[in-house]
Amino acid sequence: MQNQKVTFIAIALIFGCGGESTSSKPSTTPSADVARTAGGEAITKADGNAVSKKAHSKWESALEEFDANEKSGWTSAKCSSSSKSFERAADAQGGGFAEANYMAGLALSRCGDSAADDHYEAALKVDSKFCKARVALALRDLANGRTGPAKSEFERSIKDDPQCTSGYTNLAIVQRSQGQSEEALKNLRRALAIESDYLSAFNQMALLHYDRGRKGNAAELDLAEVVCRQAQMLNENYAPIYNTWGLIKVYKGDVISALRFFQKAITLDPDLFEAQMNFGEVTISFRGYEDGRRAFARAVELQPNNYEAVIGLGTALRGLERFAEAETQYERAKQLDAKRPEAYFNLGVLYQDYMSGSVGDLKKARGYFSEFLSRAGKQSEFRSSVQDVSNRCAPRSGKSRGAPKCRPGRMQNIDISVEAMQVAG
Q1: Which of 184, 266, 292, 424 could form an SS bridge with 284, CB 3.0 to 4.6 Å?
Q2: pLDDT tens across 331-352, in order?
Q3: Residue 303: exposed, middle, or buried by beta-carbon count in 10 A (0-12, 13-18, 19+)?
């Protein structure tokens, strides 16, 4: 499953007719203290209760601060300040303000602060059917690999609130990852029926058609591009759709267009991890090592413990002949996950092809390749690399002519080179 950054959509408070609450619960705010529109309509929360003038004033100020941070960029100090502003709005309402509790958490989440969860839980204590808070907690479960509980919470969010677009969309993400494409498509259509310009749903629908297209149906790839164009027409500055569009172009073999789309995505949103990774991979394939280095370095900043990002950064540095720095990144990858084979393969390549060529360096490369083989085993994704490392050819006789029918693997080439240098020495 491809994770995408969630775009903020402001929570609107409700304008109740004539000051009447739309909830069966009696309002706890005296009529004289109720916040009203210029037309005299009462402003209420999602649960139907009226918002006090003081709470509404603090809510409006907190929203302005949040929106300003979205445009200028978040820092730890800004996240904390914004969260406290929404807390003050909740306090002014007597604590019973689910929207403000949720937004206090969302502000902290912009800096990856796990304390955001406390605010989401506080929102659900005020209103157990507040879908955005339930979805936020379910996304936490999903990020931690608890797919089953997350899926159940997404299902509950739309059961509690049939208008919960984020619930439908995230449920579709899980369903898509489980191969339930028809069910996922239905839920994405439900989300768009409720909110016709919900960009996250458009993006997931494009990814769903992209998945189908990779299974051999070219028409699905064309449909995926149609969805991307629809989203672009709604909002030309929505970064994730350009990342998805780039993936489609890569699969179609139009790498130049893919590069352009990935570049557009990271220009619009430098924090979009997937786009940085994709841009880095494509630029390296064209030997654009400096562009690749910048992209992977940013990806590592965003997710310091992401194995693939660290390996990518090492490969870009190796291409720039910054070999000591490349080795540092590969060693870091080993520390992140010593069971994975990629770091060992890359260290072997580094010592065989880029270091001094001495017997010591070649033997070190051979040791790394042995570690790679023991970890790669028979995993299909490493089959070609395993063959590249381990293939062995019988010695050619002096009478053999023409191109060799067998290509020695890296380990055999190392053995041949080491033997030749030892004989010469």
Answers
A1: 292
A2: 999 999 999 999 999 999 999 9
A3: middle
